[in-house]
Hints:
The complex is a heterodimer of chains A (367) and B (128).
Chain A: H1 5-8, H2 11-22, E1 26-31, E2 37-39, H3 42-48, H4 52-55, H5 66-70, H6 73-84, E3 86-94, E4 100-111, E5 117-126, H7 128-160, H8 163-178, H9 183-212, E6 221-224, H10 225-235, H11 237-242, E7 246-249, E8 254-257, H12 259-275, E9 282-292, E10 295-304, H13 334-344, E11 348-354, E12 358-366
Helix pairs in contact in A: 8-9, 10-12, 12-13
Chain B: H1 6-19, H2 31-37, E1 48-50, H3 59-67, E2 77-81, H4 86-94, E3 99-102, H5 107-118, E4 126-127
Parallel strand pairs in B: 1-2, 2-3, 3-4
Helix pairs in contact in B: 1-5
Amino acid sequence: MINSTNSLLPQGEQLYKKMIEEVQDYAILLLDLDGNVQNWNIGAEKIKGYKEADILGKNFSLFYLPEDRASKLPKTLINSATLNGRATHEGWRVRNDGSTFWGSVVITALHSDDGDVIGFTKVTRDLTERKLAEEEKARDTRSIELQNRQLEEFAYITSHDLQEPIRKIQTFINLAKKNTDDKELLNNYLDKMSISADKMVSLIKDILNFSRLSSDKNQFISVNLVDILTEVIGELDLLIEEKKAIITVSSLPVIDAIPIQMNQLFNNLIHNAIKFNNGYPSIVIQHEIVKNDTGQYHLITISDNGIGFDQQYAEIAFKPFKRLTTNHSGTGIGLALCKRIVENHNGTISVASVLGEGTIFTILFPA
Amino acid sequence: MIDDDPDDREFFQIALDMTGIRYTLKTAESAVEALNIFPEFLELPDYIFLDLNMPLISGIQFLQIFRESADLNKVPIIIFSTSSYHKDIEDTKALGASHFLSKTSDIDRLSEVVVSILKGNDLPFILT
């Protein structure tokens, strides 16, 4: 009599095998000592995307990312399970179609009656949704922290910078009232009120620009920074001609960015480089790709031969409404804006300067 | 008086003139300039009026530097600022400022307060 193996199994054991086969939410696998797949269930097919025929006999390291295979993570987990009885791990895993999921894995060693390890069970859950929710929560937390800092900054700006022009206008009004007979003095006070009112208008504009800077992922597109720079040079045409400035550009990369913010960034930096120069400005813009422990970056430098400043003030240069000079016009928002734009693009900006010799701004964007 | 704003220096001088008290006023446009001109003084000033929000070295930083000098440390410093920010008030008090005088649009009031300061009257830390 020919009978399938299954029907030879006692009924309880067959039920047990069915149970494992039909579990949908967990991939439940039997591995041999080398980690080769010995059985497959519906859950495994659903989570990992392989049909039973395609995977039986293959090594379970197939489910791991290339970098995890290179660092021998599958082997490490098997070794750990052999040694400790079980091993757990959470991480990104690869499906048959190449997509990834966040797997929570428990590998348990199976022992013979003599106590020797004869194989492993591996139970995997797809926790991608939970993982993404956690990541989103962490992002939200960071965003709230950032917004709190910005609010604090805003409170400071409101208590300092915005009050100043108003107080001055009030003072000039009071002084004018005391001197209604002196026409010349009155005119002088009126002029000063007008200057303070203009200052107020430009401060409010700057604060609005600053607070409206978006870091919305949907606005990022592929941007050729050469095009941005060409635009900016066009916008600064008159100033460049007036100061006989020379701008030299080696090469610039194409990056994922918000175009208008890139324009603001380069406009501010080049405008500063021309403005803070008592001679003929020479501005050199260079780009190279650099690597460090955390990854690959576009390194962009913008150097000038301008008036420069003492390096000890480098940090305050990027704070809103902090100016390094009273002799040049401006509200002091420019570099704060640059810093926020670069941070929106996950980059960093720093400055090195020597008084009387020039300034170099260094920007790093992830490549 | 250390203040980068020419209008505020002018307001202060008008208020001083209104007091009728004889005075000598030296002004510096920045904390850097103030630190540079102090060594040239034959005698220390009786009072320093100090703005907070200035380019390069802020008023707070000036206070910190100032406290380190044993000679200068004796001169009372009156903060003269637009700010009413609680942290500025706390920080300057902790750094040994004598008073925190908020810049006002009322020159008559400013003049009255300056008179009480120069007369050495017993005054609270926060003055308006």
